[in-house]
Amino acid sequence: MSEPRSHASSPPTYRTGEEVRHRQRPEWGVGTIQRVEAARRGTSIDQRLWIRFPNVGMKVLLAGLGDLERVGRSAPAEGGGILGEGVGSDGHTMADREASHEQGWLGEIARKRPEEAMVELPPQASDPFLSLRQRLEFTIGLYRFEPSGGKLLDWAVAQSGLNDPLSRFNRHELEELFTRWAHRRDQHLAKLGQEARNEPGVFDSVMKKAPPSAHKALRKLHGRR
Fold first, then answer.
1. pLDDT tens-digit profile of 65-118?
2. What are phi and psi of 137, to 5 degrees?
3. Which of its termini does the chain have fewer beta carbons within 10 Å around, N or C?
């Protein structure tokens, strides 16, 4: 059985001007660090960051708790990477893929098939290093997105890695892509439910906090069987 993933023992170090994405709230967009100051967290020295995100404005976060990832091509600040990982994100968004394969035939595929990245679930939903509860909670969190209005655009920002996804897709295309993505999300939740047969308490406790749309999706899937 795999051991849980360990994070770096010391918090990452950031500088003003760096661009970051919040792993748990990618729909905020790519933010720019406006101000940095030293902060104490328990017995550790951390950083308090003022970050301006395009979709939610200014947020003040602790570097060691903010679950941030650097984006773009800038080199990391002295003192290490991000949560034990290198510069940049995990490569799942459309923008990440295009940035890493700008040239050659891989780049052509990435540019011609952006919908492939748009309909994939974030890797945290199935990360084998995460516990069943963590994967369930992350998947339930994906039900905050909806197929219309501002929540559709929030989803498009999170999936594409673009602050303005309407510069690449029209609304009808986003609605169609969301439908395909939501189907995968629902199927994955059902799969986690099957995986939780030996841990029913975990599944039940997480589902108590789930929004009605998650329960509706499960009922619909079960009704087809």
1. 878 888 864 444 343 333 333 333 455 665 665 555 444 444 444 554 677 888
2. -65, -40
3. N
All structural domains of the chain with their residue ranges: 1-89, 118-223
With DSSP H G I counted as helix, E B as strand and the rest as coil, what are the percentages for the chain, rounded to 5? 45, 15, 40
Question: How far does Cα 58 stand from its chain's mean position?
Answer: 19
Q: Residue 18 burial (CB < 10 Å; 0-12/13-18/19+)?
A: buried
Residues 44 and 67: beta-carbon distance below 8 Å:
no
Report the first-to-last Cα separation within the chain, whole angstroms: 32
CA distance 6 to 190: 28
What is the value of pTM for the model shown?
A: 0.66
